Amino acid sequence: MDVLGYLRLVRRHWWIVLVTVMLAVGTAALVTVRTAPRYEASVTFFVTTPSQGVTDAYQGSLFLQQRVKSYGDLLTSDRLAQSVVADAPLGLTADQVRSRIRTASTTGTVLLKATITDTDQTRALKTTETLATKFTELVRKVETPPDGKAPPIKIEVVSGPRVTSSPVSPQPTRNLVMGGLLGLLLGAALAVLRGLADVRMRDGIALQRVTGSPLLGEIPYETGAKAAPLIVGAAATSARAEAVRKLRTNLRFVDVHEPARVIAVTSALQGEGKTTMACNTAIALAEAGWRVLLIDADLRRPKVADYLGLDGGVGLTDVLVGDVQVGDVVQRWGEKSLLVLPSGATPPNPSELLGSKSMADLLVALRDSADIVVIDTAPLLAVTDGVVVAVQADGALLVTQQGRTSRSQVAAAANALSSVSVRLLGCVLNMAKVAKSDAYQYEAYKVVVPPAAPSVPADRAGSRRGAKAGGGRTQELTRLSR
């Protein structure tokens, strides 16, 4: 995965980054509040020795630089700490005093700095003053020759002792900034791990890669699609309707040398929007002037008649068992050249009925009666009905809902089709999240039409008792009913 892929994962799981940053900043703020303020008191010593001449000065400087390193260790020695505790009642032990001392020396100089950090500002200053006094006394005592002559090294206090007026720690601004940065890095890492561990289908590129078929369309998610699933009326100018029209175009030109006239629409799982996709695809094809026949072959949970507002009591099942002729139950929908064959009564053996010779003969006859036949089938992983119907069609269209179906489930559905040599025309990512920029481009360029009355079923050709000759049968299927 490239850098852009990782950035997409972080953007997709932005809430993980936000929560992690908030927790990190909150933790930093809590630690800052609960940490006692600490003050620093410091004193700087200058180490010198009498010298004569340039050569003596240079050698003396090297000698003193070496001694400064030793004096740094002397400042943190147990002997000096015990001397400080014995001289002034600080309420600290020798180990506590020693742990508070920090020394530093600048390379190439003879300056030595001692810093004491304490939560008590007054005690920090008093400890530093006592330390400076005891240190100079200790150096003088150690460096004084046995014969009592003047020591060759002299220690002078050139700065301090002084204590900071404000605490050196905690530093709220620094802590909060550091907490935010650490939270950002940790959140980004968690978002990437969450994205890599997420096996659900998240984008069209992954769907195309898993199925090994072209991506024919990405249908955007719309909040009002559940209440009004069909692309008619006000929804005809929506971005979802335009995406279905793009699917119609891609579907017609997916293979110009061998166009598919009988298309099975299926999915891996139920609830992915295959029935809605079948209905809208049929409507879009009919809008383009094609004679379209929509068949509800999902005999276990038929929904086409409910979506289109048709009578689904008699339909495909009754035709297959020989109770009625297909021309008696096919219904015209709306003012478009769209014919609908509902599912009919629920049979006890859907798979056997759909795989029967009657079904094969029916599809051969219907192929000559319509330009395009769209079949809504059952989910592939639930039952075998979808595969049985897809085998008899010219190809299958696999519908997958974004963020719901896993990659393994989609792969299993594609394998179920390929195992019986079903031609997978392409795949569709349903309920996809579209970038705001793309949605804005469509809203800015769409055609605004005056409101019109919603499309309704014009003539329900076919019922249990038949219908009048003028509206009971469609002209396209009259010869099939004889």
TrEMBL record:
Its main location: membrane. It is a multi-pass membrane protein. SUPFAM superfamilies: P-loop containing nucleoside triphosphate hydrolases. Gene3D superfamilies: P-loop containing nucleotide triphosphate hydrolases. It is found in: Cell inner membrane. The chain crosses the membrane at residues 12-33. Residues 261-404 form the AAA domain. Keywords: ATP-binding, Cell inner membrane, Cell membrane, Kinase, Membrane, Nucleotide-binding, Transferase, Transmembrane, Transmembrane helix, Tyrosine-protein kinase. Pfam families: AAA_31 (PF13614), Wzz (PF02706). CDD domains: BY-kinase (cd05387). Residues 454-482 are annotated as: Disordered. Residues 1-87 form the Polysaccharide chain length determinant N-terminal domain. The keyword Nuclease does not apply. The keyword Amino-acid biosynthesis does not apply. It catalyses: L-tyrosyl-[protein] + ATP = O-phospho-L-tyrosyl-[protein] + ADP + H(+). Its EC number is 2.7.10.2. InterPro entries: AAA_dom (IPR025669), Bact_polysacc_biosynth/exp (IPR050445), LPS_length_determ_N (IPR003856), P-loop_NTPase (IPR027417), Wzc-like_C (IPR005702). Belongs to the CpsD/CapB family. Belongs to the etk/wzc family. This is non-specific protein-tyrosine kinase. It comes from Micromonospora echinospora (Micromonospora purpurea).
